[in-house]
Amino acid sequence: MARRALVTGATSGIGEATVRALVADGYQVIATGRRVERLEKLSAELGCEIVAGDLSTDEGVAAVAEYALSGGPVDVLVNNAGGALGTDTVLEGKVNEWRRMYEINVIATLQLTQALLPQMIEHGGDVVFISSTAGHGTYPGGGGYVAAKHAERQIPNTLRLELVGKPVRIIDIAPGMVKTAEFSLNRYHGDQEKADDVYAGVENPLLAEDIAEIVRWAVSLPAHVNIDTLIVRPVAQASNTLVARNQGV
User: Fold this and answer.
1) Could you write out the DSSP letters of every residue in 181-215?
2) pTM, to two decimals
3) pLDDT averaged over every residue in the chain
4) pLDDT bracket for residue 248 (50, 70, 90)
5) Could you give the CA distance from residue 73 to residue 199 in angstroms, rounded to a whole number?
6) Active site positions, annotated
7) 31-36 own/partner pairs: CB under 8 Å, 24+ apart
8) Which spans in 71-107 are helix H?
9) How many C-beta atoms surround the C-beta of residue 6 within 10 A?
10) What 8-state DSSP symbol labels residue 243?
11) How far apart are CA 18 and CA 117, in angstroms?
């Protein structure tokens, strides 16, 4: 019987790539996100199950969890939904953006994990968190996102201690610079030029497919092997602030 996986934020970027990777590896995948049309297109192409829901609301979390569990135990939960808003300094940071980033990166992740964990403790399973190198160090203009990702990272760090001895693997994958169609675009509120500048001159930034392959690999390992935390960056990136860029670009 195929293992069942639930992937959040599946309508683009790392989430969509993860759905594709797990389907190709034989998983029965449930893809969730807010954009119904994109989910339907993904289902038509891959044959995955879909359930729409806004995970920043209690109702959305409940609907997604109820659908996922109605088909039997969920073996893998990939907490990918999240994102950044703005690059303001702490002094000028917009409270509504900080609050929104905390809601989508931390609270939504917490609530869905809480909904699925009891059956995983009983049957076994993997909980994967797609966090960020922003959870390991800060940078100018990143205060709100960094704060949210530091908070999110404490969920797997603490769960690992609280669930020791239980048949649940807690896996934290922290990507650095990943070039996707929407992450930076959303951060810059739709300004394509500013979004493109993030990757300007960078030779071979990571792609969504790179992170998806890491997820696939981590959950495919023997059940006694746990990837606690994996930081992954492109070779051109040494830290959150030090990135090699081609001259003149």
Assistant:
1) SSHHHHHTTT-HHHHHHTTTT-SS-EEHHHHHHHH
2) 0.96
3) 96
4) low
5) 40
6) 145
7) 31/7, 32/6, 32/7, 32/8, 32/64, 32/68, 33/8, 33/9, 33/81, 35/11
8) 95-102
9) 24
10) B
11) 21
